[in-house]
Amino acid sequence: MSSRLLDTEFDRIILGIDPGTNIMGYGVLGCKKKSIHLISMGIITLGRVDSHALKLKKIFERTLSLIDGYHPDEMALEAPFYGKNVQSMLKLGRAQGVAMAAGLYRDIPIFEYAPKRIKQSITGSGNASKEQVAGILKSLLKFDEIPKNLDATDGMAAAVCHYFQGGITTNQPSKKNYGSWGSFLSDNPDRIK
């Protein structure tokens, strides 16, 4: 689908990113009135790039490529989670920062969500597994097969979470904030068929 068609087919396009230094997941979500549609979802593999600095360069370039290809109106990123390995957290934070920088370079508003908030908005539980998140997204977005690498659905989950937060278009708090999948469904019964 050409980017010109995307601009006219959807009211808004959200790019979701699950940052990583070996695998970065992404999802492109099209929003039309009260419906959402999967435009694209996938991963960017960086495991064969030896230097951390070159990985960051590749993340920046590939994120710019996604932005230039799909013309998103907003970008939603999964925030790094806190872990015991400080070096891993630092590398993940750098990957997220580089993806954010690519969005800012193209004047895309950036939104960040904690992993638990993303899981809760999709499944109703902040402790849901990646497989549970992927299963709900498969049903919601009606794609045929769950990707082998769940980093792709994690990227899409960030985009869907952003949409569920009430359709925020600025960094101001939303008027309607859905705390769970159940509350979203009760307010939007026409969304599931």
Mean pLDDT: 86
Poorly predicted spans: 168-178
What is the CA-atom radius of gyration, in angstroms?
A: 16 Å
CATH superfamily annotation: Ribonuclease H-like superfamily/Ribonuclease H
CATH architecture designation = 2-Layer Sandwich
Name the structural class. Answer: alpha/beta
Number of helices: 7
- The separation of the N and C termini measures 25 Å
Strand order of the largest sheet: 3-2-1-4-5
Q: Please report which band the strand proportion falls in: under 5%, 5-15%, 15-25%, 25-35%, 35-45% or over 45%.
A: 15-25%
CATH class: Alpha Beta
Major pleated sheet: 5 strands, mixed
Structure description:
This protein is α/β, with parallel strands linked by helices and 193 residues long. It has a single domain, classed as Ribonuclease H-like superfamily/Ribonuclease H (Nucleotidyltransferase, domain 5, 2-Layer Sandwich), CATH 3.30.420. It is built from seven helices and five strands. Strands 3-2-1-4-5 form a five-stranded mixed sheet. The longest helix is centred in the middle third of the chain and has 20 residues, at 86-105. Residues 168-178 have low confidence and may be disordered.
Q: SSE layout and pairings?
A:
Elements: H1 3-9, E1 12-18, E2 23-32, E3 35-45, H2 52-70, E4 74-78, H3 86-105, E5 110-113, H4 115-123, H5 130-141, H6 151-164, H7 181-187
Parallel strand pairs: 1-4, 4-5
Antiparallel strand pairs: 1-2, 2-3
Give a nutshell description of this structure:
By secondary structure, the chain is of the alpha/beta class. It has helices spanning 3-9, 52-70, 86-105, 115-123, 130-141, 151-164, 181-187, and strands spanning 12-18, 23-32, 35-45, 74-78, 110-113.
